[in-house]
Fold Diaminopimelate epimerase.
Amino acid sequence: MDIFTRSVPFYKMQGCGNDFVVIDNRELGVPQSAMADWAKAVCARAFGVCADGLFFLENSDDPALAYRWHFYNSDGSRAEMCGNASRCAGKLAHAIGLAPAEHVFGTDAGPIKAKVLLDGPDQGRVKVQLTPPKGTETGIVLDVDGTPLTVHFADTGVPHAVVFVDDVAAVDIMDLGPKIRYHAHFAPAGTNVNFAQVVDDATMLLRTYERGVEAETYACGTGASATQLLANQLGLTGSRADLTTTGNEVLTVFLEDGNVFLQGAAELTFRGELYLAPMGLSL
């Protein structure tokens, strides 16, 4: 019996502990109609590779874009954007010759500018310019189990609610996170939920409950960006802040002339072959 059935090469990457499977789809040609099922199967723990999300890299018909991606959360839901994954995409695209170190690629949220830093103290890190934030709102008072809770909101490619707390470590994120994520105020799409502790005007601690993963993740780039954007609007931080995530990694968010820039690590951890039949997949 031959167990080495049809296989597909993949890359495993992580951005500050937020981990992703990446598939170069330029020649493979996985149809978009099948991508959600691939994400659910490949990202599954024990039966797949195990990851927070999966994205496919493809050529773009738009000459202004080096390539485009299709991004899916581990539950198969398609996401407009993911900050940590965007840094991974930029670094891998440069490494495999798909794009130069500085380039623009396409997402459902719009074009993303990426720059792989090739020298200096931040060598190896990646800086991305996110799409313009929208829907920003501060001072939203929600009824959560009969108790008023003040949250703030910004869409930095995907929707994010932000709650500022005195002690982020004390938050019961698996209890409070879903209550905000599914709150009627954010229906029908729901929202990601961030809990932030301001240490000083340039430093915060951050924990994120991610929509689509439905759990706390080690980091969330768009969440860090939304948190810094809102903290700055509330007068809590300056134009640049370092946010330490659950994975004890640091994401740096810059606010420049109305634009949001996210900088942090993006690492290739391994690559391998996906055997399709055991995961119920085919081409």
Notes: DSSP finds four helices and 17 strands in the chain. The radius of gyration is 19 Å. The longest helix spans residues 83-95. The mean pLDDT is 96.
